[in-house]
């Protein structure tokens, strides 16, 4: 995982320069109209969900596919429109067809966000988070009454990027839409069954998703 450690080092360097720039930038601007002001806390929940069913014309077999994800975040504005906090992301995919699949991925890390506009009705925002990720993927197939497949499990370093828009419904209630991009570098163990043979691989995993949710602005810490 030398590549992951190197990326983690560069991620820390980037985060340090990013926060230094935030401090200098905040000293030269006056964002009176924005609700994203220094000292405020913001906490929120957003997510994605989809489900589908397919029925073959030639068989009575149904195929199910479910996908969902959740983002849980909280942080404090260290300067006007600059937020520093934490984020937890969980995603899961289940499919039940000829091939069954269960995939889970977790991510947790520090979060830094910038809101571009000082408009009191809302703003575009961008967020970046380097952190820890875990991954598990199990695929199975029943052939001649025998279950065959493999299970991949591991953890490593990840980068989580978000770009979206936050709309101020009320001065404390926010509606958020976002495009989420993640990339992870994972050292994983691959177990094949029923042979129970094990191999080890370095994986790079990328995902793209859209999310929506709600945030609240508070004077004190919440969550």
From TrEMBL:
<dbReference type="InterPro" id="IPR011250">
    <property type="entry name" value="OMP/PagP_B-barrel"/>
</dbReference>
<dbReference type="InterPro" id="IPR006315">
    <property type="entry name" value="OM_autotransptr_brl_dom"/>
</dbReference>
<protein>
    <submittedName>
        <fullName>DUF3575 domain-containing protein</fullName>
    </submittedName>
</protein>
């Amino acid at each position: 995982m030398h590549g992951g450690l190197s990326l983690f080092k560069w991620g820390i360097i980037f985060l340090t320069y990013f926060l230094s720039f935030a401090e200098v930038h905040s000293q030269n601007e006056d964002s009176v109209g924005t609700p994203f002001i220094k000292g405020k806390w913001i906490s929120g929940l957003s997510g994605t969900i989809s489900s589908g069913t397919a029925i073959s014309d030639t068989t009575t077999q149904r195929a199910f596919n479910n996908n969902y994800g959740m983002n849980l975040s909280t942080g404090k504005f260290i300067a006007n429109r600059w937020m520093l906090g934490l984020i937890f992301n969980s995603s899961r995919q289940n499919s039940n067809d000829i091939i069954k699949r269960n995939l889970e991925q977790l991510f947790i890390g520090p979060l830094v966000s910038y809101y571009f506009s000082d408009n009191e009705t809302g703003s575009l925002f961008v967020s970046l988070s380097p952190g820890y990720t875990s991954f598990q993927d199990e695929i199975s197939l029943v052939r001649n009454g025998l279950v065959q497949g493999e299970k991949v499990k591991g953890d490593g370093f990840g980068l989580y990027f978000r770009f979206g828009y936050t709309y101020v419904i009320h001065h404390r209630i926010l509606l958020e839409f976002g495009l989420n991009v993640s990339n992870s570098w994972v050292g994983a163990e691959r177990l094949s069954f029923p042979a129970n043979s094990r191999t080890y691989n370095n994986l790079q995993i990328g995902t793209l998703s859209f999310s929506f949710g709600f945030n609240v602005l508070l004077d004190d810490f919440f969550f």
